[in-house]
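New to this. Explain these tokens.
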Amino acid sequence: MVNGMSGRSVLLWVLVPFLALCAWVLWSSRPEKPAESPSPQATPPTQAPRPPPVPPSRTFGEGSTLPSRAPPPPPITIPEAEPRQEASTGTVDKEDVRRAIQTVVPLIRQCFQDVAERYSGPQSVTLRFTIEGQGLTGHFKDGEVVDTSIQDPFALACFLDSLLDVRFPAPREGGSVTITYPFRFEPGSDAGR
């Protein structure tokens, strides 16, 4: 061999250090074992104790429960209101408009219920919208909030969106009718209408 190195010495000088290096890397990268396994009742010192579970407060159906985080807001009463006709090229009966709006009062009540915790006490929202006749029914158009004690844009949009589902009476003599409709919300012990 050249320079007096045999195959055995190359093996000793290259392979043995390589194997030793691999063994050291594996040993140093192994996961640490816990010194002791904690007992089920002991809490590790680095973790905060867990809060006790929230007891269920309401039962839905047989045996199923939902936890309660806050007391439910009081039921909402929405007294009937008097619609006011503003500009028009046709006419509609106010009682027909009131009856049509009463069909979506549950949706409107839910809009208020969503913000009732932040706006306690009696509240009011007055909406202005146009009813356009299309065949035998009238359709909601150009709704806006003209007066409100609730300063939540999502709730106000919810009130207007609720009116999209109303089947209004078509204005007599065709055309359109602009209506102003006040809603009052009164928290109370009775959910009302």
In short: The first helix runs from residue 7 to 28. The domain at 76-187 is CATH 3.30.1150 (Fusion Protein Consisting Of Minor Coat Protein, Glycine Rich Linker, Tola, And A His Tag; Chain: A; Domain 2).
